[in-house]
């Protein structure tokens, strides 16, 4: 998505990671600013979103 940080881009992820996993997961599930809820795929479960966020964070620290 336009403006989304790329996985492994530590500088772009640092401030997001600093907010904490709860905030990242909440924004991912519910949407935030221009980012749609669940990445625009309402069929994804909250657990799938949590796992995706955890993976992206683990690759970007």
Give the helix/strand layout.
Blueprint: H1 10-18, H2 21-30, H3 46-59
Helix pairs in contact: 2-3
Give a verbal description of the structure:
- The chain has a domain at 1-41: Cytochrome c-like domain (Cytochrome Bc1 Complex, Chain D, domain 2).
- It is 54% helix and 0% strand.
- It contains 3 helices and no strands.
- It has helices at residues 10-18, 21-30, 46-59.
- The longest helix has 14 residues, at 46-59.
- The relative contact order is 0.22.
- Residues 5-56 form the Cytochrome c domain.
Record keyword descriptors for this entry.
61 residues; mainly alpha; Cytochrome Bc1 Complex, Chain D, domain 2; 54% helix; 0% strand; globular; heme binding; Cyt_c-like_dom; electron transfer activity; transport; electron transport
Q: What is the name of the CATH topology of one domain? A: Cytochrome Bc1 Complex, Chain D, domain 2
Which value, in Å, is the CA radius of gyration? 11 Å
Tell the overall outline: globular
Structural class of the helix and strand makeup?
Answer: mainly alpha
Uncertain residue segments = none
pLDDT averaged residue by residue: 94
Q: What is the CATH architecture annotation of one domain? A: Orthogonal Bundle
Query: How many strand segments?
Result: 0
Largest sheet: none
Corresponding CATH superfamily of one domain:
Cytochrome c-like domain
N- and C-termini, Cα separation: 20 Å
How much helical structure, as a percent, in the residues?
A: 40-55%
Number of helices: 3
């Amino acid at each position: 998505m336009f403006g989304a940080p790329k996985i492994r881009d530590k500088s772009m992820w640092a401030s997001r990671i600093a907010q904490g996993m709860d905030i990242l997961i909440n924004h991912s599930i519910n949407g935030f600013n221009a980012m749609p809820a669940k990445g625009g795929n309402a069929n994804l479960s909250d657990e799938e979103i949590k796992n995706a966020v955890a993976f992206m964070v683990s690759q970007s620290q």
